[in-house]
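Try this one yourself first.
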């Protein structure tokens, strides 16, 4: 009798243990997905395929790509220069492929309809100075590597990636000979 009880107890223990194990497995399997779902707010990315190759834009022009408004703005040498232009090329200067935007003494301003937590882009810097403005702070220099609040790779003549983490209230990037591509706006 005692032996039967012990066997029954062991069996009950076994099922309990199995239930706990299964529960743990389900929890572990579900947790990463839930965490990912909570943090994975898909960015809106612009690869410039939406603009015709070799089309040109000057200061004051605007266009909309994937729901994001863009404005071509002036460029600070200094002083401010309002006679610059941009065009859509496909030379791979930003280190990516397909269409890209070439900034020639002009800046591209992002006008997002939603709150922005981060902006990332591919770029190639081929001469002169560059502008990077976010949240009212204006950088006027050359290399984007080492700017406070900015994560960047790349160098003169070496394409790289750039990320500005927010919240971001305003943003533009400009250059004298600067190619940009794959600009992503994170909600
Ligand atoms: Ca592209």
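Now uncover the answer:
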């Amino acid at each position: 009798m005692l032996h039967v009880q012990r066997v029954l107890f062991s069996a009950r223990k076994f099922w309990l243990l199995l239930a706990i194990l299964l529960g743990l497995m389900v929890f572990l399997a579900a947790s990463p997905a839930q965490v990912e779902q909570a943090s994975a707010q898909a960015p809106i990315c612009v690869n410039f395929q939406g603009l015709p190759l070799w089309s040109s834009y000057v200061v004051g022009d605007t266009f909309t790509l994937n729901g994001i408004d863009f404005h071509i703005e002036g460029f600070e040498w200094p002083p401010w220069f309002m006679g610059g232009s941009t065009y859509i090329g496909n030379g791979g200067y930003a280190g990516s492929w397909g269409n890209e935007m070439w900034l020639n003494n002009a800046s591209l301003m992002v006008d997002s309809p939603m709150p922005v937590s981060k902006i990332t882009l591919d770029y190639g810097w081929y001469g002169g100075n560059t502008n990077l403005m976010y949240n009212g702070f204006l950088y006027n220099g050359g290399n984007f590597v080492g700017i406070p609040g900015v994560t960047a790779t790349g160098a003169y003549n070496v394409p790289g990636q750039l990320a500005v983490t927010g919240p971001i209230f305003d943003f533009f990037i400009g250059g004298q000979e600067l190619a940009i591509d794959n600009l992503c706006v994170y909600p």
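Discussion: Residues 44-186 form a domain with the Jelly Rolls fold (CATH 2.60.120). The longest helix spans residues 2-39.
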